């Protein structure tokens, strides 16, 4: 899969709300989208029209924060 397609798919998995808070889309309902901070935390709900796609740097941060830490 080309890199552009991979990034595009990931950006739809993450959204930024009107306050600038970055979240992973974990669910949708009538007139709302449920987000969770990358890496876990308390979920919050926002209207879909209050969301935007993350910038490349926001997406990079989300991917880093959601990557599990492996210890030996």
UniProtKB/TrEMBL annotation:
Segments for region (Disordered): 22-55
Name this protein carries in UniProt: Uncharacterized protein
Species of provenance: Streptomyces xanthochromogenes
């Amino acid at each position: 899969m080309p890199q552009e397609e991979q990034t595009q798919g990931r950006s739809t998995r993450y959204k930024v709300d009107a306050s600038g808070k970055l979240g992973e889309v974990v669910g949708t309902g009538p007139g709302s989208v449920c987000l969770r901070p990358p890496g876990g935390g308390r979920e919050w709900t926002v209207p879909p029209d209050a969301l935007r796609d993350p910038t490349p740097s926001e997406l990079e941060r989300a991917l880093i924060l959601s990557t599990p830490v492996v210890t030996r």
